[in-house]
Predict the 3D structure of the following.
Amino acid sequence: MSGSKNKTVAATFETREAADLAVEHLVQKIGIERTDVFVQAAGRQNSSGVEASGGDAPSANEDGREDATLSGEIEVSADVADDKITTLHRTFGDLGALRVTAK
């Protein structure tokens, strides 16, 4: 994290796809170091749900397979210098964040 004054800006997204896109924008377009960007479930529960999917589910060729849906929101946060806070708020908003906060 560069700069003497830093804050954490966090945004909550409805889908994992939107969260991934936000990470991509922060790193590639704004120039935030990937090590300063964090992704986690927005709540206490696992955002991938409790239904089997991926490696723990039956083969795609087996009858009845349906991938599990997300059961919670995804939070993307970044530790940034004060001069990038406005840019992050705007970027998160443009990408459809449900909420944006700064600490």
